[in-house]
Design goal:
The protein is mainly α and about 350 residues long. The protein is built from twelve helices and no strands. Bound molecules: zinc ion (2 copies).
């Protein structure tokens, strides 16, 4: 598929999803709201920013994720197809369950790390929505997305899971993420410790002190119970959402550049900003160089394998023809050609 067709297909699929999610969660939020009156369409600037995160950012991330995977295969696996685990032989549903569990543990700790000091600047973008609705699902700084979700996908592929398991899980993950961000008062009652609910994740987004650094799990809150970060008080619902920065940029480019800027003039803050800039530039350069090298090397490997297979087929045909001709010379009536009848 060429580039434009790929982009067109991506936009068509995403727009179909957006229409479906808007209809489903729009109706449900009318019937069972967590925060009555809080709807994404009432905050136009935020909705336009979220549209960029849904429709444009994933295109860039898809390319960068592919480069990350190619670099991983070449530098960690020496160009060999990943098989650290014999997972590709497992039934698809078992692979999906294992990936869900594995990625939830990985993403829990990555999420916790993104709530600390320098990394928070990137994650603050996700927490910037003051009108919290399902549309906030995609609002992640590209650096945050790459080092969390893209990395988690690359890790399971390098471990040996089949890409088809990720393809099967993608719609579930999208729907589940949209659901936990939707403006719904669902707590899941007795299952609140097993499955993340909208109320569980909205407590994570609250600016109120009691919800700060709580409820990091994406799907299974039992992780928060085990690691002491679970917070879901009975009979109360979260409100007051945002990242605590009153003048946080509302547009995409302002949010994209925000982690690399600092209004704080203290030497410590300026030094930290410089470190973030240098680390980001080096990280991006490393990803582009390593990913391009990996992609070229894998393409060359594929070309060599195709050539070898063609050569093998050619030799087999030549050997078969030679055997036929020898058989025909030895005894024309018993040659395989005549035996066919
Ligand atoms: Zn967070
Ligand atoms: Zn969230």
């Amino acid at each position: 598929m060429d580039g434009m067709a790929w982009i067109g297909q991506f936009w068509l699929t995403t727009l179909t999803w957006l229409i479906g999610l808007a209809a489903a969660f729009g109706l449900l939020a009318r019937l069972m709201p967590c925060n009555p009156g809080m709807y994404w369409w009432k905050y136009r600037r935020g909705a336009i920013t979220d549209a960029v995160y849904w429709l444009v950012v994933p295109l860039v991330l898809r390319v960068l994720s592919t480069l990350m995977l190619a670099a991983g295969i070449v530098f960690l696996r020496g160009g060999q197809r990943p098989h650290w685990l014999p997972a590709q032989g497992w039934p698809l549903w078992q692979q999906c369950m294992a990936i869900l569990l594995l990625q939830d543990v990985l993403l829990y700790w990555i999420h916790r790390l993104f709530h600390r000091d320098g990394a928070w600047r990137f994650h603050a973008v996700h927490h910037s929505a003051t009108v919290l609705d399902w549309t906030s699902t995609a609002r992640f700084h590209p650096v945050n997305h790459l080092l969390a979700f893209s990395l988690a996908d690359v890790v399971v592929l390098l471990l040996g899971f089949g890409p088809e398991a990720l393809v099967v899980l993608a719609p579930f993950n999208l729907l589940y993420s949209a659901m936990v961000h939707a403006n719904l008062n669902w707590t899941f009652g007795p299952l609140r410790f097993l499955f993340a609910s909208p109320v569980f994740h909205r407590w994570h987004h609250t600016m109120r002190e009691e919800g700060i650094d709580k409820n990091f799990a994406a799907t299974f809150p039992i992780l928060d119970v085990v690691f002491g970060t679970f917070h879901m008080p009975r009979g109360r619902l979260p409100d007051e959402f945002g990242n605590g920065e009153a003048d946080f940029p509302e547009g995409f480019w302002g949010q994209f550049l925000h982690p690399f800027r600092s209004d704080d003039v203290s030497p410590q803050a300026r030094r930290r900003t410089r470190v973030i800039r240098v680390a980001s530039i080096l990280g991006l350069a490393g990803l582009l160089c390593g990913g391009t090298y990996g992609t070229l090397r894998l393409a060359e490997q594929d070309r060599q394998q195709t050539d070898a297979a063609q050569q093998h087929r050619h030799e087999q045909r030549a050997r078969h023809a030679s055997e036929l001709s020898q058989a025909a010379k030895a005894s024309p009536l018993e040659s395989p050609v005549f035996c066919k009848k």
